[in-house]
Amino acid sequence: MARGLTFFSIAVLAAVVSICHAAIAPEDYWKMMLPNTPMPNSIRERLQPDIIDEKTGTSVNVGKGGVNVNTGKGKPQGGTTVGVGRKGVGVNTGHGNTHVNVGKGGVNVNTGHKGKPVVVNVKPGKSPFIYNYAASEDQLHDDPNVALFFLEKDLHQGTKLNLFFPKATKSPKFLPRSEANKIPFSSSKFPEILKQFSVERDSQEAQSMMETIKQCEEPAIKGEAKQCLTSLESMVDFARTRLGTPVKALATEVKKETVKQQYTIAPGVHKLASTKSVACHSENYVYAVYYCHETSGTSAYVVPLVGADRTRVDAVAVCHKDTSQWNPKHVAFNVLKVKPGSVPICHFIPEDHLVWVQN
């Protein structure tokens, strides 16, 4: 037992030293680059990544709270636990798993059963927020994001829309840029990626991951600047590069989980003064990946909505003045029964997506 504790104590101390010399944590990078921009809650909730070594079952999280070590097998509450934080060092022996958490609060180590980060909403399919794809029948019937499209002429108090805003409570976590940059992200390296995360080649999870990579590798449409970003720090840099500085981030705020229902646009629709915007859409992957793009001729709005059950949603909407370069079979044209380039088309963004505007 003593030898085990010594090993993990050394591992933790080494991790702490490496953290001190490593790149700035994602949250600190945000504060440094965007000192006057609050971080949306849906993004903050994704700042505790799980990195798991498939050979040992060791997971690493970047988070907030002292140094904790828990090692062993069996019940989750068992094993040997070492806690090092503001209040000192604590050791608890028993049976359990081992996890590693690194962040503002320090480092947690936990070793146990084999595992990997989870892909949420893994059913393969095209993102409706990528405009060069045709809609599939499955998407038209099954994708809740389809309902988020509407016409700009309807963006006013009193309009009623049937919408679904799921809470982004299970979205994959961000990796620090220093870690994300070490992991390949390309179709040519896909077998290596699957092996690294222990994902079965023929699984739905693998199909979803490959779909995301393919979407990221597609060329941009005319008038669009796009990039898929695998860390929060890279997303901040992309927004600042495209828009200049200062910038701010906007996200839809959902008060509670609800079902699809009728929402009414309440008083207080606010059009942002920024003449340019960057939208960043969360993609299906084993860790947080965002498809970010700047398209010409867009306007951003903050729209207060009240549901039939009185739930309030402060939604962010983006309106596209020119859709002539979109795929003629894009889901928006199917749902709204309009043609490319004929009228401005808007869409709300889900809770874990972002719109960046000039501040």
TrEMBL record:
InterPro entries: BURP, BURP_dom. Residues 1-22 form the signal peptide. Residues 58-111 are annotated as: Disordered. Residues 75-93 have a biased composition (Gly residues). The keyword Signal applies. Residues 58-74, 94-111 have a biased composition (Low complexity). Pfam families: BURP. Residues 149-359 form the BURP domain. Keywords: Signal. Coiled coil: none annotated. This is BURP domain-containing protein. It comes from Cinnamomum micranthum f. kanehirae. The lineage of its organism: Eukaryota, Viridiplantae, Streptophyta, Embryophyta, Tracheophyta.
